Amino acid sequence: MSPEEYARARRVLMRRDPVLAPVIRRFRERSLIEGPPVDPFSALVRTIVGQQLSTKAAATIHGRLIGLMPGGIATPQAIGGLGDDQLRQVGMSRQKSAYLRDLAAKSASGELHLEALSEMTDEQVIDAITKVKGLGRWSAEMFLMFRLRRPDVLPVDDLGIVNAIHRLYKLRKKPDAERIRKMGETWRPYRTVACYYLWRSLENTPQ
């Protein structure tokens, strides 16, 4: 998404969805496309590191991991050069270490062609990324949204999206995936942008 398309998406969503519109106005200075995108390999490394961890813990472990690599840059070769003891010492579990090694091996061999992902359709990207151990559909959707900045992704299984819709739209019970998909038809072709503001709606909201 370009800044112009992002601005257009916000206008469309505010016009179509009177519930979401106040959230967009409240966070009008915030944007999904802030800052330069991270390179694909580094983005997937960060995804694996952060699984089932708080943001703070993930950032700490990721920083230690990157500190082991030449120039502080994550590459398949750098991952391949790390021993199991090194990975364990920075806080990586045996399982996550295996996921990192699989990502590095598939990237180095070309089985996961990282540079081609930007040319693929959303579903092709999801299919490619989920071939890596430990990376499921949700991980691939986050990659589409935050790395490739695709405009129309709807992660129906994301707990934050489920909770945001439940609270913001004052639903009696938490919505299932099918209901979220139906609600998301209103936001097409900018479901990614809608999700960004759904996440923002949870800020400073009591749990």
Overview of the molecule:
The chain is an all-alpha fold and 207 residues long. The protein has 2 domains: 3-35 and 153-201, Endonuclease Iii, domain 2; 40-147, Orthogonal Bundle (Endonuclease III, domain 1), CATH 1.10.340.30. 57% of the residues lie in helices and 0% in strands. It contains 12 helices and no strands. It has helices at residues 3-16, 21-26, 40-50, 55-67, 76-80, 84-89, 94-109, 122-129, 137-147, 159-168, 177-184, 191-201. Helix 3 crosses helix 4. The longest helix is centred in the middle third of the chain and has 16 residues, at 94-109. The radius of gyration is 18 Å and the shape is elongated. The two termini are 32 Å apart. The mean pLDDT is 91.
Spell out the blueprint of helices and strands:
Blueprint: H1 3-16, H2 21-26, H3 40-50, H4 55-67, H5 76-80, H6 84-89, H7 94-109, H8 122-129, H9 137-147, H10 159-168, H11 177-184, H12 191-201
Helix pairs in contact: 3-4, 3-7, 8-9, 10-12
